[in-house]
């Protein structure tokens, strides 16, 4: 089947789908599936705009709301992951994934689904080591820290994905796996993006967590975005035994969605011709979610995932064939994901702008149904419970000592990645420059002869196979990804501090509500976070 892959679309859904229609008219190519690698910007209204960690001048409604309201429908099944430019309050409603609009599916913090027999996985957000070991504790209204930490990758999602044993066809991440640039035209990449040089030479560009997943999952295809440049690479993985067949990954990073940019890639993927056209759950992934449910953490306390180091009674949470069989039996062997999209917020009306609309913490009925069906913890419901119990610490209280970890983790265990970012100062000036016109050159093909530093183009035969060097392994002194430091550093001189979670009750949405009711004022100390006159300073 033909799969279209897009990079950062930044809410420009009309343009993206119009490009697909143009492709069909001119070249008679009609994709069966569209994958988007983050910065999707599923913005429904003005409140969602306030939950995006971008300067005010980049906060535009764009066109997603038309698909959310039902005015338009995506012409092709669209599956996406989250990036670092998202309406975090909206995506947070669907931690395990779900429909954000008819025919548009979000994979959640991490997720695996199947379409026509093709196994598709992904992880949302970007890597930042200082938040990596925390739980998903954030909820709207966000402060100046949580509006960013909400989209940072957590170790529990990586741990879940590392429990998977069955082969992966396609995997998506927003930021690149660290070291992947060594397997493509690195020289041309640095020519186009010279500000990457320091990170490339020190091997700190990209996500060490994504690199770890790349080594474990060994998918046939890996798609990324984030750095706003098109780049291809080919990696031959090492085998663990002589009996194991060699595996290779074709990597492709996509450019952002802008006029006159080649931001879409069409890839032919082998599929099961007998499979249906519906998006389906992945039985092994559901079994892993059930097995790891006890590890869910919704506090700011840091912990490491269980491992075979003598500190944990259990460290293997992979799904047995029996557990997978149980999932299939629970579903009566019908893995079709229900089309149960529900409006959970008021939709933007251009004729009636509501500039003072404020974000609320919402439970999505899709998540409620999913958790009830598989016996999982509703993360947002649990956040509300913890908030009511008064046990959330960190940003929402005066700085206190971290509470001791329970038997599933140890506060004394060392972090998997170095959290010292004092030496990282380089930024990615292209990170939020959505209106720039530079960088049109396509790095997915090579303008030089193949060599160790210049492998052949992505569309070629991939005959230049190289073995993964030891540098691909994630070491304990890996520093955090610094390509997004421009967004991570705040220029505001006066930091807004949260002493406690907002006391207003969590908003639970029923299937027949549109999200208009129950919205209350944000506390005065939070208003500065969303004030329009201060937004330009926050980045």
Automatic annotation (TrEMBL):
Region feature (Disordered): 388-539
Biased composition (Polar residues): 416-428
Domain Lariat debranching enzyme C-terminal: 235-380
Protein location: Nucleus
Main location: nucleus
InterPro entries: Calcineurin-like_PHP (IPR004843), DBR1_C (IPR007708), Dbr1_N (IPR041816), Metallo-depent_PP-like (IPR029052)
Biased composition (Basic and acidic residues): 486-506
GO terms, molecular function: metal ion binding; RNA lariat debranching enzyme activity
GO annotation, cellular component aspect: nucleus
Coiled coil segments of this chain: none
Biased composition (Acidic residues): 396-406, 432-443
GO BP terms in the entry: mRNA splicing, via spliceosome
Cofactor requirements of the protein: Fe(2+); Mn(2+); Zn(2+)
Family recorded in the similarity comment: Belongs to the lariat debranching enzyme family.
Protein name: DBR1 enzyme
Organism: Chauna torquata (Southern screamer)
Source taxonomy: Eukaryota, Metazoa, Chordata, Craniata, Vertebrata
Gene: Dbr1
């Amino acid at each position: 089947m033909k799969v279209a892959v897009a990079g950062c679309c930044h809410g420009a859904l009309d343009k993206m789908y119009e490009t697909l229609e143009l492709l069909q008219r001119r070249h008679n190519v009609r994709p069966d599936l569209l994958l988007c690698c983050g910065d999707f910007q599923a913005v429904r209204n003005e409140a969602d705009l306030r939950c995006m960690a971008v300067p005010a001048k980049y906060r535009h409604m764009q066109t997603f709301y038309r698909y959310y309201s039902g005015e338009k429908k995506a012409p092709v099944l669209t599956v996406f992951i989250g990036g670092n430019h998202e309406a975090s309050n909206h995506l947070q409603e669907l931690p395990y994934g779900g429909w954000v609009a008819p025919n548009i599916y979000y994979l959640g913090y991490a997720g695996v689904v199947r379409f026509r027999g093709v196994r598709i996985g992904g992880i949302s957000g970007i890597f930042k080591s200082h938040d990596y070991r925390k739980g998903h504790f954030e909820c709207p209204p966000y402060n100046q820290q949580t509006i960013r930490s909400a989209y940072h990758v957590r170790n529990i999602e990586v741990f879940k994905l590392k429990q998977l044993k069955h082969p992966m066809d396609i995997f998506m991440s927003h930021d690149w796996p660290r070291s992947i640039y060594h397997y493509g035209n690195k020289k041309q990449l640095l020519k186009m993006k010279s500000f990457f040089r320091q990170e490339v030479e020190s091997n700190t560009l990209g996500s060490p967590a994504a690199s770890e997943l790349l080594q474990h999952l060994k998918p046939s295809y890996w798609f990324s975005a984030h750095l706003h440049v098109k780049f291809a690479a080919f990696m031959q993985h090492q085998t663990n035994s002589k009996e194991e067949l060699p595996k290779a990954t074709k990597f492709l990073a996509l450019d952002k969605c802008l006029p006159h940019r080649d931001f879409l890639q069409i890839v032919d993927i082998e599929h099961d011709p007998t499979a249906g056209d519906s998006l389906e759950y992945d039985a092994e992934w559901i079994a892993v979610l059930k097995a790891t449910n006890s590890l869910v953490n919704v506090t700011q306390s840091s912990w490491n995932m269980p491992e075979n180091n003598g500190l944990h009674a259990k460290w293997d949470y992979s799904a047995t064939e029996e557990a997978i069989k149980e999932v299939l039996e629970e579903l009566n062997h019908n893995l079709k994901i229900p089309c149960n999209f529900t409006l959970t917020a008021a939709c933007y009306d251009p004729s009636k702008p509501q500039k003072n609309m404020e974000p609320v913490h919402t439970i999505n009925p899709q998540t409620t149904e999913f958790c009830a069906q598989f016996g999982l913890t509703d993360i947002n419901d649990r956040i509300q419970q913890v908030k009511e119990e008064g046990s959330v610490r960190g940003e929402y209280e005066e700085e206190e000592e971290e509470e001791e970890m329970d038997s599933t983790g140890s506060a004394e265990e060392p972090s998997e990645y170095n959290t010292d970012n004092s030496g990282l100062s380089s930024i990615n000036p292209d990170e939020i420059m959505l209106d720039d016109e530079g960088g049109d050159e396509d790095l997915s093909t090579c303008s030089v002869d193949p060599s160790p530093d210049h492998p052949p183009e992505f569309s070629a035969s991939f005959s230049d196979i190289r073995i993964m060097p030891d540098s691909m392994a994630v070491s304990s002194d890996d520093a955090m990804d610094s390509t997004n430091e421009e967004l991570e550093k705040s220029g505001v001189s006066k930091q807004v501090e949260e002493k406690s979670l907002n006391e207003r009750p969590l908003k639970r949405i029923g299937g027949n509500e549109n999200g208009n009711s129950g919205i209350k004022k944000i506390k005065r100390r939070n208003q500065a976070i969303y004030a329009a006159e201060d937004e330009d300073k926050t980045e």
